[in-house]
């Protein structure tokens, strides 16, 4: 795990990201080869970009335990975006929420150290021939197969979409009690996929079942809510990989959100020392994992100790969720 600093004016941005196999940093703008135009499909909303993942670029049998171990935490991909700052204020509308979906009654996997949560897991993906790892969460949706993560874990921002993306719910110490779920369609706000605005660093993946049962039936799904008040109290989850963590167990933080002190993003920060690999992990309102999800782990600053920032979920991210969850 490596941590990257990005200079921008009076501050330095600290990426919660890592390069493992290559030993260096990778800028978001040069992460992957071009995707054929016919692979990009516009949605009904101008705020949303949708990419249907060709079968040849889905995870399939690619993700062996060795490749999972060597994958690079994806936060390194946002170094340019954090330095660039926000393009404009995040649009907000009426508060909305979607109730959680409960899993069918099945035995929960047993953890050895920190209990895994069935609907939270690790995300593995490839950009530019390099393998990365993030965190993600199953969320309530009409299609019952929707995962939310950070925008930089599905798209370069701006740039190409990820390939070989899989979701591994309840991952712990290399085990995958619910199997690997291949992403078939990826969604990102156009403010992220076209402009790389870190204030909109959220993405969604539609996954296919390895068993025939839907994701929400298999592991459950968190409810989501948008356009909430700022300054709420959250419990954040993720799989950090840098010391003192190793990326093999689920970790959590708890605290009250405060604004970005530099004012360059619409994101909020909570007290949290999670490191690379935690990107895309869910922020749940209140204490515990049963609350409504309202953000994701996104980035940090190197001169603001132990603070994780996450994007405000306003109307644009709501529109992206609506498109993905249909």
Automatic annotation (TrEMBL):
InterPro entries: Glutamyl_endopeptidase, Peptidase_S1_PA, Peptidase_S1_PA_chymotrypsin, TRYPSIN_HIS. GO terms for biological process: proteolysis. Residues 1-33 form the signal peptide. One of its GO terms (molecular function) is serine-type endopeptidase activity. The keyword Signal applies. It comes from the Bacteria. Keywords: Signal. This is Trypsin-like serine protease. It comes from Cryobacterium serini.
């Amino acid at each position: 795990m490596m941590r990257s600093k990005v200079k921008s004016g009076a501050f330095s941005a600290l990426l919660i990201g890592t390069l493992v196999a290559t030993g260096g940093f990778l800028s978001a703008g040069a992460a992957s080869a071009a995707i054929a135009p016919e692979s990009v499909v516009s949605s009904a909303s101008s705020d949303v970009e949708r990419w249907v993942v060709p079968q040849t670029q889905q995870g399939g049998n690619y993700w062996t335990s060795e490749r999972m171990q060597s994958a690079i935490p994806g936060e390194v991909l946002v170094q340019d975006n954090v330095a660039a700052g926000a393009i404009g204020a995040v649009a907000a509308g009426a508060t909305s929420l979607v109730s959680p979906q409960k899993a069918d009654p099945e035995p929960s996997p047993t953890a050895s150290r920190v209990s895994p949560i069935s609907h939270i897991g690790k995300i593995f993906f490839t950009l530019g021939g390099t393998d990365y790892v993030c965190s993600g969460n199953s969320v309530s949706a009409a299609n019952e197969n929707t995962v939310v993560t950070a925008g930089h874990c599905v798209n370069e921002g701006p740039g190409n979409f990820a390939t070989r993306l899989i979701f591994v719910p309840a991952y712990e110490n290399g085990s995958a009690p619910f199997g690997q779920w291949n992403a078939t369609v990826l969604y990102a706000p156009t403010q992220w996929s076209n402009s790389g605005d870190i204030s909109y660093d959220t993405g969604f993946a539609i996954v296919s079942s390895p068993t025939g049962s839907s994701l929400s039936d298999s592991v459950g799904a968190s409810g989501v809510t948008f356009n909430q008040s700022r300054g709420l109290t959250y419990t954040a989850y993720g799989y950090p990989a840098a010391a003192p963590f190793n990326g093999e167990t689920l970790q959590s933080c708890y605290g009250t959100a405060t604004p970005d002190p530099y004012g360059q993003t619409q994101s909020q920060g909570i007290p949290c020392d999670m490191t690379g690999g935690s990107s895309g992990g869910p922020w749940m309102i209140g204490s515990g994992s049963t609350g409504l999800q309202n953000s994701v782990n996104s980035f940090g600053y190197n001169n603001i100790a132990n603070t994780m920032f996450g994007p405000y979920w306003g109307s644009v991210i709501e529109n992206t969720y609506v498109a993905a969850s249909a």
